[in-house]
Amino acid sequence: MEKKITDIQGTWELSNGVKMPYVGLGVWQSDQGEEVMNAVKWALKAGYRHIDTAAAYKNEEGVGKAIKESGVNREDIFVTSKLWNDDQGYEETLKAFETTMEKLQLDVLDLYLIHWPVEGKYKDTWRAMEKLYNDGRIRAIGVSNFLKPQLEDLLKDAKVKPMVNQLEFHPWLVQQELQDFCEKNNIQYEGWSPLMQGKLFSEDIVNDIAEKYDKSPAQIVLRWDLQHGVITIPKSVNEKHIKSNIEIFDFELSDEDMKTIDALDKSERLGPDPANFDF
Ligand code: NDP
């Protein structure tokens, strides 16, 4: 399916038909209280319609409150949360989900992800995710930090296929083979730490391209995500950054500049490698 890029409220369709906004606000390391609440409210005011949180971020309550107070209709906002590693297992997942929903003050979640592939547990966890999905409590289910072996293993038994895989993704970590595998299996690729927490701003080539388009390095990298068909969730608690990070719909990177940025890939990670993550 063609992935059109239109504006901040534009969506791409997941394998089950659910429409997911391709830009969201990430809220990791945003403090529970005023910090996260302001960030979410500024983002919604600026036009964002997608918030990416997790039980592990310990700010679901703030996210839920800000959504309630924002004045934007709940149905118009796409909310993602993630199940933490300690809560994996069938019964544990069902329980952890209810806690998340209480904190977010929501009845239905748009997307629930298994945060990391905890070995020996993620299949039982997935069965619980499938139940919650079939019961209508979650509109789409997916995984995060699953590499090809774990995806293949999960797909063997899954009755409902994961609709999304959220992974570290930026010009220094492309993982093309994994992207191709996800695409072949109709699993939408979603990138975390798209700005590599600011580290990419020191990359000369990104700066040169930014100058050429009269854009910031952040805007260049986020636009590059979208032109690759990758959903992006930059984090910021700064109103100026929140606004400027979505000024990416009035220009298009040329094929040549896309390729120049692609060539920066050096398989460099900011976070842990899921292949040897210590759960
Ligand atoms: P990002 O790559 O989004 O970078 C965030 C950092 O960049 C912050 O320090 C922010 O500071 C700064 N920043 C943002 N915009 C600008 C700008 N325009 N100019 C200058 N600095 C800027 O990092 P994250 O690691 O937070 O990743 C994004 C999201 O991905 C997370 O918040 C989370 O939702 C998700 N994630 C998921 C993981 C998973 O395992 N599934 C793991 C890690 C992240 P400031 O706030 O001051 O603007």
Give a structural overview.
The protein is 38% helix and 15% strand. With 279 residues, the protein is an alpha/beta fold. The strands form two sheets. Strands 3-4-5-6-7-8-9-10 form an eight-stranded parallel β-sheet. The radius of gyration is 18 Å and the shape is globular. The mean pLDDT is 97. Bound molecules: NADPH dihydro-nicotinamide-adenine-dinucleotide phosphate (NDP). NADPH dihydro-nicotinamide-adenine-dinucleotide phosphate binds next to helix 9.
Keywords:
8-stranded parallel beta sheet, TIM Barrel, 38% helix, 10 helices, two-stranded antiparallel ribbon, 279 residues, single chain, globular
Summarize the SSE layout with pairings.
Layout: E1 11-13, E2 19-21, E3 25-26, H1 34-46, E4 50-52, H2 60-70, E5 78-83, H3 90-104, E6 109-114, H4 122-134, E7 138-144, H5 148-157, E8 164-168, H6 176-184, E9 188-192, H7 204-213, H8 217-227, E10 231-232, H9 239-244, H10 255-262
Parallel strand pairs: 3-4, 4-5, 5-6, 6-7, 7-8, 8-9, 9-10
Antiparallel strand pairs: 1-2
Helix pairs in contact: 1-2, 2-3, 3-4, 7-8
NADPH dihydro-nicotinamide-adenine-dinucleotide phosphate binds next to helix 9.
